[in-house]
């Protein structure tokens, strides 16, 4: 019986370890995610011997560490979304005017700019949750 207790414990631990490893790691958000991203870029710059990039990244990391708060980062990202919405509205107005005039070349150019602005808006909205 004394032999079975440690054996059962070892078996239980060996079965639960893969389950623990399979649990998804909690994704970082806000300033912690920003610091992690910069740290990853620092490791990449070190691995490739890019000293100029490394210096800039280390400065960025110290700035984020010193000044970043989740509230300020959220506010910054909300402002970026607002700016992107305004840009989409402006581009849509420009396109509407061009469509009234009927200049196909200008219409196509403005459609491309509007699509780019919408993409930037989508990216800004996605950044809100990070």
Topology (elements, then pairings):
Layout: H1 4-22, H2 30-47, H3 51-67, H4 70-101, H5 104-128
Q: Number of domains in the coordinates?
A: 2
Count every beta strand, where a strand is a DSSP E run of 2 or more residues: 0
Largest β sheet strand count, sense and barrel closure: none
- Which stretches are low in confidence, meaning pLDDT under 50 for 5 or more residues running? 1-24
Distance between the termini: 53 Å
How many helices? The count is 5
The best one-word shape is elongated
Mean pLDDT over the full residue set? 84
Global structural class: mainly alpha
The helix fraction, in percent, is: over 70%
Radius of gyration: 25 Å
Residues in β-strands, percent = under 5%
Spell out the helices and strands N to C.
HHHHH
Protein described:
The protein is an all-alpha fold and 130 residues long. The protein has two domains: 40 residues, no CATH class; 61 residues. It contains five helices and no strands. α2 packs antiparallel against α3. The longest helix is centred in the middle third of the chain and has 32 residues. The termini are far apart. The N terminus is likely disordered.
């Amino acid at each position: 019986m004394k032999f079975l207790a440690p054996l059962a414990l070892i078996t239980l631990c060996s079965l639960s370890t893969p389950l623990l490893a399979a649990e998804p790691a909690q994704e970082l958000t806000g300033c912690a995610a920003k610091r992690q991203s910069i740290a990853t870029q620092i490791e990449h710059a070190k691995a490739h011997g890019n000293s100029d990039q490394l210096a800039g990244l280390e400065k960025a990391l110290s700035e984020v560490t010193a000044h970043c708060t989740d509230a300020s980062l959220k506010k910054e990202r909300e402002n970026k979304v607002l700016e992107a919405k305004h840009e989409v509205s402006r581009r849509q107005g420009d396109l509407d005017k061009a469509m009234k005039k009927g200049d196909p070349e200008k219409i196509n150019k403005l459609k491309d700019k509007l699509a780019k602005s919408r993409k930037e808006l989508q990216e800004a909205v996605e950044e809100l949750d990070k």
